[in-house]
Amino acid sequence: MAPLRIAIAGDLHGQWDGLDEEVLSQVKPDALLVVGDLSDGQQAIPKRLSRLALPLACILGNHDTGRDASGRTLQAQLTLLGDLHCGWGLRELQPPGLAVVGARPASAGGGHYLNRAAEAVFGPVGVEESAERITAAALRADPSIPLVVLAHSGPTGLGSEASDPCGRDWKAPACDWGDQDLALAIDCIRRSRPLPLVVFGHMHHRLKRGQGERQSFCRDRSGTAYLNTAFVPRHSEDAQGRALRHFSWVEFQGGVLQEVSHRWFSHAGALLYRQTLYRAEDV
Known about the structure:
Layout: E1 4-9, H1 18-27, E2 31-34, H2 44-51, E3 56-58, H3 72-81, E4 90-93, E5 98-102, H4 116-122, H5 127-139, E6 147-150, H6 180-190, E7 197-200, E8 217-219, E9 225-228, E10 235-237, E11 243-253, E12 256-265, E13 271-279
Parallel strand pairs: 1-2, 2-3, 5-6, 6-7, 7-9
Antiparallel strand pairs: 1-11, 4-5, 8-9, 10-11, 11-12, 12-13
Helix pairs in contact: 2-3, 5-6
């Protein structure tokens, strides 16, 4: 069985264009996941994503509301994305054979909070109802294919230091700034089926106030892996002046997680740098 190769675009913050799409055309992943914060509510990136031929699932983040409390900006992007957006829902990508379940859309972390824009679009949704929606979507997924939960903010429970995957780094004291509803859903899902991977962003890799870099990967005792893909900015240059495009990268083999890495590609799709976070044979 061929490996399932998944490219993941972390928080975009406006950094997505035709060159990103050219990289994907060269490296040819089987699917693309996008963790939100596409921009500050502009419609250009949702339009581009909606035209991609690559199997794709996306969730919107807190920046995607555009600071428009009416919800109109958020709704316009949801309309453009259509079925590509999987918040509180299931998107089965067939091919390549991947079940993607979306967590709470437009999350800003910090436990459980719906901003005014999200509440205008989705209505009031409490922590338990949100967890139930995520769980119900996961339990509808085909049990024969791997399941990935796609979130903007990760769950609570991954540590309370500033450098932890969901640690608060912009204000002292540091604390766990993950989503409580997502943590509840993960526990419920795993009572019924394996959950090999949870993918998210929101908390950027470079910590505030010169505190260093964030731990972007961990794996718990139940075997669930957690990957923070928010390597911001995604577009950069190396010391030689070569332009770089960042994607996180995940591979499954026979439904089992095999490799997780951060990768930086040239505009032509050449792999210039790789930071390996996990290999199954190393466990």
